[in-house]
Prior knowledge:
Blueprint: E1 5-8, E2 22-26, E3 32-36, E4 56-59, E5 62-66, E6 71-75, E7 77-81, E8 88-90, E9 93-96, E10 101-104, E11 107-109, E12 132-135, E13 138-142, E14 156-157, E15 171-172, H1 184-191, H2 199-209, H3 216-219, E16 227-228, H4 289-326, H5 331-363
Parallel strand pairs: 7-16, 9-15, 13-14
Antiparallel strand pairs: 1-2, 2-3, 3-10, 4-7, 5-6, 8-11, 9-10, 12-13
Amino acid sequence: xxxxxxxxxxxxxxxxxxxxxLALTAASFGQFRLAITVGPPAxxxxxxxxxxxxxxxxxxxxxxxxxxxxDYYWVxxxxxxxxxxxFLWTPGWxxxxxxxxxxxxxxWGPTIGFYGGINYGFGYFGVGFSGxxxxxxxxxxxxxxxxxxxxxxxxxxxxxxxNNTVNRVSYNGGNGGISARPTPQExxxxxxxxxxxxxxxxxxxxxxxxxxxxxxxxxxxxxxxAATSRPGDFSHGAVEAKDAGGAYKGPEDRGAGAAxxxxxxxxxxxxxxxxxxxERPAAPNTGNAKQDKKYQQQQQKLAAQQDKERxxxxxxxxxxxxxxxxxxxxxxxxxxxxQKHQQQTQALQQRxxxxxxxxxxxxxxxxxxxxxx
Length: 373
């Protein structure tokens, strides 16, 4: 599989099966892509809202990741106006990259590319798209797959589609993932002319990210807003999931890739002030006094920065507690806030642990050269 984007690692959590977060930027899109070691929940079961008008194409819902809360959240499926005549939507997908799950951004283009073999439904059954086609500058909808009001939209046809995919797994590769691989034609679609998600789609994602009910930890894989008639509008024409696509497993139950707080979930720190004192690595001893001094300065700088980040997060959380107290929040809201704070604190601790480990690896003495043969 060829990935047409450059990689910038902005955070690495690799010790003892903790959360790994990478940032990748697409050469063509210039957008961030996230990678984690915890696979997303299954695709929920839901019905498609009716198409709002001619020229709208269906973009299926998917799970996305929010590093701030260390959780997946559901981005509802929605109808979006095609940016160009003749363009189709290739959905984004999660794929195991050997060390982490990578998010591959969806795109618009004249042909459908690879989307991980994921069965998103509504014409996206793992390969290609059977929900409609362009003809003479108009998009014709397949009524056997799409929810179309024929009173308003007349460019329709009816073609039975056989969907043999029964699972609702939402990622490719890894433990339990889809085993599909891209064809040369699908790879060519990603390398050919295409454009990034339009503004309406990015705004739709932002709206989903800001809705606590769409977080996997809150809805257990059954989002209350599974799909919408128009992007960003979660009130009019929205539908809820009928059921989760499979048994929901929280991060602590998702196998080897799951992040686990030290001491078990019951003893996990909720706030930075609850964390034990940060471990400081031993003084460097590489055998090079000048190099050791340089490394020691870097250690002190990193320790000061980490202390500052702890204090900043604690101040932010204290402020949120004060605001909730002023609003006289009930127990449910208090528990929700505490859960958010716990996730933030765990993510901070994991990031600091990875940073310290990386520095220790850089300071390790070079292995002595063996005898030459």
